[in-house]
Amino acid sequence: MSFKLVGLAGSYNRPSRTFALVDHIARIAADRYGFEPRVHDLADVGPSLGQAQRQGDLDEAAAGVLADVVDADFLIVGSPTYKGSYPGLFKHFIDLIDPEQLRAKPILITATGGGDRHALMVEHQLRPLFGFFMAHTLPTAVYASDRDFSDYRIVSEALLQRIGFAVDELAAFFPARELAAAE
Questions:
Q1: What is this structure's pTM?
Q2: How many separate domains does the chain show?
Q3: Residue 150: enclosing H or E segment and its boundaries?
Q4: Is the pLDDT of residue 178 over 70?
Q5: What is the pLDDT of residues 5-57, one digit of tens each?
Q6: Are 50 and 35 in contact (CB under 8 A)?
Q7: Which ranges of the chain would DSSP assign to H, the alpha helix?
Q8: What is the rounded CA–CA span in Å between residue 90 and residue 9?
Q9: How would you classify residue 46: left for phi > 0, otherwise alpha for psi between -120 and 50, otherwise beta?
Q10: What CATH number does residue 170 fall under?
Q11: Per the database entry, which stretches of residues form a coiled coil (predicted)?
């Protein structure tokens, strides 16, 4: 049985530190647990998002990304920090998801920002957002600032260690997968 890992970076920018963070975590989790990873950003969702009032209003590309998100066995969600919170179009994409579609889904929440003063964005913005959906946000959230990257690659040992702690927590949801991947 193949489990599906989906990463969603709430950024339109390419390249993006948020995408780099989500993609890095997705690769580690995929290697460790044998997931089939897919990582999207809002550029993949495209322009129909801004006019959509419900899922059926999305064009084919956006509907495909949304289907990947709701059909995933595990999500890694990342957001850039914009004025102390997540960007509006990221929130609009999440608003199109029915709460039942994320119920009990394990989610690793991540965010990026210019400096440490936004580090609690994951706890004060993203955790309550996915709590509304009754999803299982992993206890360890990951926040990365500009200084943790060089040329869109993670260079901070402390950040890499925190990512490792977060990926370890997946074993609570996929213990047999971890044992199989270790063999």
A1: 0.94
A2: 1
A3: strand 149-150
A4: no
A5: 999 999 999 999 999 999 999 999 999 999 989 999 999 999 999 999 999 99
A6: no
A7: 17-33, 42-45, 60-71, 88-95, 121, 127-132, 157-168, 175-182
A8: 9
A9: left
A10: 3.40.50.360
A11: none
